[in-house]
Amino acid sequence: MFNLDRQSYNRKFVLVTEGPIDAICLDGCAVMSNEVGPQQITQLNQLQREVIVVPDRDEPGLKLAKQAIELGWSVSMPDWPEGIKDVNDCTQKLGKIYTLWSIVQAKESMPLKIQLRMKKWLGTE
């Protein structure tokens, strides 16, 4: 788990991304894959705060979103402009504050709403 040591206990939630560059952009955690391993699940749950998964905008990213649903975590798939595929892209093009705001605004915890959002996230709606 990348950047777990940077998660202070005064935060309301922890942002989870696939890759380390995305995690650095938001001071979040990266699972270094499109799947969360058993030990990573334990580590994130032990933080005792809302976990918000921000998957990449591709098929492998949706695998992580589906796993988040199974774990009861929130998922965020913001309405970013076309061509932005992940947190790093959004931060570079639109800035860190906008990226954080858009993630928090788009977070969803209801499984059905997350599944519906997945179609729009990939543009297959």
What does this structure look like?
Helix 3 (59-71) runs antiparallel to helix 6 (111-122). The protein has helices spanning 20-26, 38-46, 59-71, 87-94, 96-106, 111-122, and strands at residues 13-17, 29-30, 50-53, 74-76, 107-108. The model has no long low-confidence stretch (mean pLDDT 92). The termini are far apart. The chain is built from 6 helices and 5 strands. The chain has one domain: Dna Topoisomerase Vi A Subunit, Chain: A, domain 2 (3-Layer(aba) Sandwich). With 125 residues, the chain is α/β, with parallel strands linked by helices. It has a 5-stranded mixed beta sheet with strand order 2-1-3-4-5, with helices on both faces.
**Rg measurement, Å:** 13 Å
- Report the strand count: 5
Which stretches of 5+ consecutive residues score pLDDT under 50?
none
In CATH's first tier, which class applies?
Answer: Alpha Beta
In short:
The chain has helices at residues 20-26, 38-46, 59-71, 87-94, 96-106, 111-122; strands spanning 13-17, 29-30, 50-53, 74-76, 107-108.
